[in-house]
Predict the structure.
Amino acid sequence: MNINSKIFVAGGTGMVGSAIIRKLFSEGYRDIISNYHLRKPALNLNVDLCKFFKLDLTRQSRVEKFFEKERPEYVFLAAAKVGGILANSAYPAEFIYKNLMIQNCILHSAHLYGVKKLLFLGSSCIYPKFCPQPMKEEYLLTGELEPTNEPYAVAKIAGIEMCRSYNRQYGTNFISVMPTNLYGANDNFDLETSHVLPAMIRKFHEAKMKAGGEQNSASSSEVRASYSVVPAKAQPEVVLWGTGNPRREFLHVDDLADACVFLMKNFDLSSKLDLDLSLINVGAGKDITIKELADMIKDIVGYKGEVVWDTTKPDGTPRKLLDVSKIKTLGWKPKISLKEGIRQTYRWYLSSLSQSQP
């Protein structure tokens, strides 16, 4: 991939895709294209960094026409339908259908129109529920999946196998990247469809604001100084799902974007011997309990009330920690600590609330 290459970032309006676009632009790439489906991307989603096309990625004929016309040389497949336990449980058909269709359309079109290299983004939920820790790439398909996100995981596993199969049969250069739990700018803070970290940020923030009678707007770039501190007894309790005991690993989306660009430039399938090595984990290499995460976010947000754990709700997989020795051997490691990453994400959330005010 050189500085003049034409690059397609599928899903450029999402958290991961927008981070990849920002990273590419920061390194001097200028021929970057992406897609939107129903709504044009907001001004804070890189509209000045790349060209956006209206395109429904679940429609094969439209995707093929797009590839035939635009002829991208490199593809980052970051488009996906994602969500937490609640969303996966409520919309299993949507999760498996939309993810399978997006993958099928883009991967096949990339083959038909001679894409030089494609990076497919999956998820650490592809690994078995009771997988040995940390989870190595070779543990894929060695046990049962976590039931709460099985449709999504099955779709992502199909994408990995599709990449491998096209590499075997057609000699393509499709690699699969499995990131751990992600967070950062442009994350989803909807309580019905979000993942655990952004959901906690919103719950703690709203509880603090409700007690203080404050408006949800930000007037300062400093998180601590954005709002007044409300006495603990005045703040409503925050209810969180499960026991708080599961352990999770978290990676800032800007670190993932850095890893994806690094792998696109430095990780190739040089021979048929590499076909089964096309899967690579990307993570922080360390995890914390959900309770520890809650305590960290509570402190950063400045919430002083009580936290109640609803143990009638599911915990999900007991532990999810990726073995990242493979990518470390290649020379990459994350740069953003969890605490600093959460601070940055909370600042972005406050800024987004301020921008949404009339």
